[in-house]
Amino acid sequence: MQLHTSLQFIQQAAAEKEDENIRFAGFLKQQNELEVDEKVHRLNTVIEKEIDCTACGNCCKTLMINVTESEASRAAARLQLNRDEFDEKYLEKGSHGMMLINAIPCHFLENNKCTIYEDRFEGCREFPALHLPSFTKRLFTVMMHYSRCPIIFNVVEQLKSETGFSN
């Protein structure tokens, strides 16, 4: 299995495969959800070990990061700031209590590594979320990140082969 890690290659391939990926998403929705999950989880386990996220860091460079109250409090404590200082410096607050990190790339990314890794936010812990169930119900999000994440790109490309999808 040849893995692609060059973001330039992945982004170009993603642009070229846009129509194919739309068809593939439709194809996957017709497959047995549990069988697809099993394939995705197995592929993710293999591929994730082979790709060094700190060589990329593109998720931290390009994604908006949601933050909960408890996550903000943990990060503030880690940085030895009170919550008001942390919130003012790092968060944007929206309606209904929604909070986002107020910068892209993330403030906490340094040399492609998270400086608050042990206290990183849930969305960061879960990304690219290929270990979660119901892959076929999350295809919009997965495909939105297909050009952004080498793990997602390689899992999806291998999944095409393993499911017998033909372009």
Estimated structural class: mainly alpha
Q: What count of helical segments does DSSP give?
A: 9
The pLDDT mean sits at 97
- Main beta sheet strand tally, sense and closure: 3 strands, antiparallel
Residue fraction in strands: 5-15%
Q: What's the SSE pattern? A: HHHHEHHEEEEHHH
**Percentage of residues assigned to helices:** 40-55%
Uncertain runs are none
Structural descriptors:
167 residues, mainly alpha, 2 domains, three-stranded antiparallel beta sheet, two-stranded antiparallel ribbon
Question: Summarize this, please?
Answer:
The chain has 167 residues and is mainly alpha-helical. Helix content is 53%, strand content 7%.
Describe what you observe in this structure.
The chain has helices at residues 7-16, 18-29, 33-50, 58-62, 69-78, 83-90, 122-126, 139-145, 150-162; strands spanning 66-67, 91-93, 99-101, 109-110, 113-114. It has 9 helices and 5 strands. 53% of the residues lie in helices and 7% in strands. The chain has 2 domains: 7-59 and 128-162, no CATH class; 65-111, no CATH class. It has a 3-stranded antiparallel sheet with strand order 1-3-2. It has 167 residues and is mainly alpha-helical.
SSE topology:
Layout: H1 7-16, H2 18-29, H3 33-50, H4 58-62, E1 66-67, H5 69-78, H6 83-90, E2 91-93, E3 99-101, E4 109-110, E5 113-114, H7 122-126, H8 139-145, H9 150-162
Antiparallel strand pairs: 1-3, 2-3, 4-5
Helix pairs in contact: 3-9, 5-6
